Amino acid sequence: MRISGLSVLMIVFVLFSCTTEAPKYKIVTVNSPFEMEPVKEYIFPDKEFNILDFGATSNEEFNNGKAINSAIQVCSEAGGGRVIVPEGEWFTGPLHFKSNVNLHLSENAVLRFSDNPVDYLPAVMTSWEGMECYNYSPLLYAFECDNIAITGSGSINPIMDTWKVWFKRPQPHMDALAELYTMASTDVPVKERQMAQGENNLRPHLIQFNRCNNVLLDGFKIRESPFWTIHMYMCDGGIVRNLDVKAHGHNNDGIDLEMSRNFLVEDCVFDQGDDAVVIKSGRNRDAWRLNTPCENIVVRNCQIEKGHVLLGIGSEMSGGVRNVYMHDCVVTDSVFRLFFAKTNNRRGGFIENIHMENVTARTMQRVLEIDTDVLYQWRNLVPTYEERITRIDGLYISNIDCERTEAIYDLKGNSKLPAKNVVMTNINVGAVTQFIGNAENVENVSGSDIFVDGKKIELVLD
Q1: Which residues contact 128 (CB under 8 A, 6 or more apart)?
Q2: pLDDT tens by residue, 178-206
Q3: What contacts 7, CB < 8 A, 6 or more positions away?
Q4: CB distance 226 to 163 below 8 Å
Q5: Which of 27, 312, 378, 386 is such that its CA lies 20 to 30 A from the CA of 251?
């Protein structure tokens, strides 16, 4: 019997399919008040690649970037496994991930990242405050990778001298922001938005995983960051757990989940110079083009020492944010706001079905706040190219205990599209120093079992 060439190809394909091992995952149980897909943790192949075997040396003047990136490349080409960073201090430039690689920081291993901007060139496809562009490479960067991780008990401790100078935002930096905003607002192709030049000083992220699937961050410490600390951008499926994050520079959010979905954040400590846990979905026209909501996010059992906000939604949220559940968290020092939904009339998008419960905290300015006119420096820096109002529907906060706040709630909706369905239940506050609450342009606000200094109060809501 003769076998055609096409039949031979089909037989080879079937044999290959049968002998190629499919990726293995374990399922992590997540309870939420909304339906979400299972959170999967990739089981990495049992293979190790020690950076010492690729020429790494613990010499404070030797840049190990080439050695570590070589180990990552070989590990991925071999089908995946763990790239081992052993005990010691390892000076390096940017590290770029490949699929199926777990960068494992051994106990007492320290990654010391260069603060020389030239080391972070050529520019890579990234984003800056919700606008896509080509900028300096994040210190740890992944683009379109599957099954990647950073694990272990070591630490990431970047050198900060240059980045601290860049914190000051000189005029050339502000001009660069206006230029990027204008390009994004007028549909200039992303490839042409080259920002890593001159005195633009757009600082790189510490960790950015960009358009990746099934990611894991587990166990390590972070000490300072040039910009946003952990940025999951357009990622699908991930676990962030057991991290100890401390970064008190400018724009040092703890973790930003942007246009990402199906994430679990648990058992982390955040001590931040900006917001702690932030859910975002892009800025204006870029987000409308990408049309990717941030959704199905669970944050549990985390400790926040200091930060501007415990849970922030926005202000970059033009693609929409829905299905977020934070529970059983504690604030040990202070935040400005416990739960803050923020947007403006340039954003559009939506905020819906956001839940916070079982949180204890010390002091703050607001327990719950909605602000639909948050523009920061952009108010006068650039014009409004197009007005779109954000739809806000369904904020739920319950079982909250705090020592002191200036106000329990401050809800400032938009008169053109009022916020709807804000529910506050079982709020216990030791002292309120300014006012109980304010509600403007909000429909169907309800509050029950609200206590101040042990006395139950009835909210007067129009």
Answers
A1: 135, 177, 180, 195, 202
A2: 999 999 999 999 999 999 999 999 999 99
A3: none
A4: yes
A5: 386
The pLDDT tens digits for 277-304 are 999 999 999 999 999 999 999 999 999 9
pLDDT > 70 fraction of the chain, expressed in percent and rounded: 95
Region for residue 100 given its phi and psi (left: phi exceeds 0; alpha: psi -120 to 50; beta: otherwise): left
In eight-state DSSP terms, residue 29 is P
* Cα 319 from Cα 360, distance rounded (Å): 31
Q: Counting Cβ atoms within 10 Å, is residue 240 exposed (0-12), middle (13-18) or buried (19+)? A: buried
The whole-angstrom separation of Cα 234 and Cα 256 is 11
Residues 6+ apart with CB under 8 A from 326: 277, 298, 299, 300, 310, 311, 355, 356, 357, 359
Q: Report the alpha-carbon distance of residue 119 to residue 66 in Å, rounded.
A: 11
Contacts of 29 (CB under 8 A, 6+ apart): none
Helix (H) or strand (E) holding 2: none
Residue 193 CA to residue 206 CA, distance in Å, equals 21
User: Are the beta carbons of 106 and 154 closer than 8 angstroms?
Assistant: yes
With a CB cutoff of 8 Å and minimum separation 6, the contacts of 165 are: none
Chain centroid offset of residue 153 CA: 21
Which residues lie below 8 Å from residue 68, measured CB to CB, with a gap of 6+? 51, 54, 56, 83, 85, 90, 92, 95
- Which bin fits 209, alpha (ψ -120 to 50), beta or left (φ > 0)? beta
Tokens of 29: 């149980």
Helix (H, G, I), strand (E, B) or coil at 65: helix
Written in H, E and C, the secondary structure of 311-366 is EEECCCECCCEEEEEEEEEEEEEEEEEEEEEECCCCCCCEEEEEEEEEEEEEEEEE
Distance (Å, whole) CA 141 – CA 245: 18
Give the phi and the psi of residue 265 in degrees, each rounded to 5.
Answer: -120, 120
* pTM beyond cutoff 0.70: yes
How far is residue 341's CA from residue 109's CA, in Å, rounded to a whole number?
Answer: 38
Q: How many helices (H) and strands (E) does the chain have?
A: 6, 31
